[in-house]
Amino acid sequence: MLSYLIWRIAQIVADIAHLKAVDFKLAYFLSCVYGGTPPVDSIVGAAKNITKANLKASLHKFPKLCEFYSFIRSRLKQNGRYPVAWDPKITDITRMGFTRHQALVALTCAAAGEQDVQALTDWILEHEQKINNTPRE
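RE: above sequence
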C-alpha cells in the first residue's frame, strides 16, 4: 500500500510539473513510474527479476543490492516461507551471540559463496555498519 502511494504521488508530481525523461538521472525512471519495465541490466531491473537461481550473479553484479535484503527476502518468499529460514547456519550464528537479523543479512549478502559459519561471522564483524543500516522486517 505504501509503495503504491509513493508511486501515485510521483505520478501526480510528474503530471503537474510536466516532467520529461531527460529531467531525471535515470532515463527510464519516469516510464517506470507509469508502469514501464526498467532495463534488465539496471539495478532496478535486477531487483525486480531476482530469483534463487540468479541471486548470486545479481549480488556480484550489483553489490548495493545487499542493502535491500528485506526486499530480496520478500521476492524469494515461497509458500509463506523464506528459503533462508531453514538454514542451520542461522542457529549456529545466533548461538555465537549474533542476532537473527545479522545472520540473515550475512546469509543474504555474503551468500555469494561463503558457506563456512566462521567466514559468515567474520563478514558480520567486517560489515557491522552495513548491517545496522539494513531495515529489519
